[in-house]
Design goal:
The chain is α/β, with parallel strands linked by helices. The protein contains 16 helices and 14 strands. It is 36% helix and 16% strand.
């Protein structure tokens, strides 16, 4: 078996281990957490901003409001964000319900322009007080019949529940869609922070077949958002969108098809075949597409040489799938940062464990990471070597300024996504970025939403 090159070492603490020593797919025990200052991932405060014309009202204790207020300020959407603070006396003087209704009413009355949709976000304390949210929302709808009110939740108790808070927020992002007749030539892609790459096979196949592809990341008005309800099919690529797809099926009668963000050629072929069958489309030349992806990877491997790669699970929902792809094409992947093996990534995880047992697996939120040595890049330079990180967290823990600034797959899908990633690796190898500055920007790309009303049709949000 080929030896790992470069900084071969033993795990430094219990938040790091060789993948060959992992039993099953359970990586690390949950416990006290540390959040590294790699802040490009999106939060539940950011995702509703994808809905044009939407306004958020957070009804929470002051300590909970700090983070979301900063998110709004840093993201540049403070004008679409309001807060109602819950105080201790509201817990015992029977004013909790009135605080929510009257607080939201007061916030809306102060706005210069009436929003089309309002996300009313409650917190854990409302769950513990057993508030009747349905009744409260009905009262708000009675007061403001021209506004679509959507329940939203900043509920930390949901983090370990069967349906996670992120899954719930994506479901709620489409909760204001109203049931309308379906357009047989209209399809949605749902549940992604970044627009699907228009050059992807999925987008190209649908366009060639005369379909309109609607994407929340591209809609520029509330009417365009509501037009997503006309689609008969929802495509989703990230597991957290499964709950949204289920809800849209039950409420609006929309069918769904899971085409995962995958780095595996066989699975990509299977997904494209499923799309072709579902939408009665012609398949492109898959052999040619796979060949072009392989050629792009070969060019990137030649460019990177022996550079050491580290991948994090914030960059892609399938970090072990990406690690396998790169290892199979001759790249020197030495570490994957991931707290768990996500659904769909199990087979790739087993392959990496069997073929590269000395590859290191590190947690991303374990408290021990606060004291982790982040000078690997400096030591590598002293040896005339280079680190390249895929993802902001890998860049932070590695200490490198050579990194692919990718979040949640960044809309890269299929063979075209592999080719695009290869180009990004070459760019990361050639270009030094000030990681300290770049990764501290909260919710990478949020400044591109919503798109300006005069933006050309189909323009994509910025890839910061």
């Amino acid at each position: 078996m080929r030896e790992l090159l470069h900084d071969r070492r033993e795990p430094v603490d219990l938040a790091e281990r060789h993948i060959g020593d992992v039993e099953g797919t359970s990586l690390f025990k949950a416990g006290i957490e540390y959040t590294p200052p790699a802040r490009g991932t999106w939060t539940i405060a950011h995702t509703p901003m994808l809905v044009p014309g939407a306004h958020e009202v957070y009804v929470c204790p002051g300590n909970c409001l700090r983070g979301v207020v900063l998110s709004a300020a840093e993201g540049g959407f403070s004008n679409r964000f309001s807060t109602v603070e819950v105080h201790e006396e509201n817990l015992y003087d029977s004013s909790m319900e009135d605080l929510l209704v009257e607080g939201v009413t007061d916030c809306l009355s102060r706005l210069d322009t009436r929003p089309s949709c309002v996300f009313v976000t409650s917190s854990c304390i409302h769950e513990l007080m057993a508030l009747d949210f349905g009744h409260l929302m009905d009262e708000l709808r009675r007061r403001f019949p021209d506004i679509d009110f959507v329940e939203s939740f900043m509920n930390c108790t949901m983090r370990k529940s069967k349906i996670g808070y992120e899954d719930v927020q994506w479901r709620q992002n489409y909760a204001a869609l109203r049931k309308v007749p379906k357009d047989p030539r209209s399809v949605n892609t749902i549940g992604s922070y970044f627009a699907l790459d228009p050059g992807s096979e999925v987008a190209s196949m649908l366009a060639s077949g005369g379909y309109r592809l609607r994407d929340l990341c591209r809609v520029r008005s509330y009417d365009e958002y509501q037009a997503m309800a006309t689609s008969w099919l929802n495509l989703y690529h990230w597991p957290v969108a499964a709950e949204a797809a289920r809800d849209l099926r039950d409420r609006l009668g929309q069918e769904s098809l899971y085409l995962p963000y995958s780095w595996d050629a066989a699975e990509i072929r299977s997904s494209l075949a499923a799309l072709a069958e579902t939408c009665e489309l012609a398949l492109p030349d898959l052999d040619d597409l796979e060949r072009k992806a392989d050629e792009a990877l070969s060019r990137a491997r030649d460019e990177l040489g022996s550079a050491e790669l580290r991948v994090d699970a914030a960059s892609t929902p399938r970090p072990f799938g990406l690690a396998r792809l790169l290892l199979e094409h001759g790249f020197e992947v030495t570490e994957v940062y991931s707290d768990a093996v996500m659904a769909g990534d199990e087979q790739a995880f087993s392959w990496v464990r069997g073929h590269r047992p000395d590859l290191l697996v590190s947690a991303m939120v374990d408290f021990r990471l606060r004291l982790r040595d982040r000078d690997a890049e400096e030591r590598a330079r002293a040896r005339g070597e280079k680190f390249i990180a895929v993802g902001q967290k890998a860049a932070y823990f590695t200490g490198t300024d050579h990194f692919v600034n990718m979040i949640a797959n960044d809309g890269l899908l299929g063979f075209s996504g592999i080719s695009r990633l290869a180009d990004l690796l070459v760019d990361a190898s050639r270009t030094e970025r000030d990681a300290r500055t770049v990764i501290q920007v909260k919710a990478r790309g949020i400044e591109g939403y919503p798109l300006p009303l005069d933006a050309p049709a189909g323009e994509e949000a910025s890839r910061a």
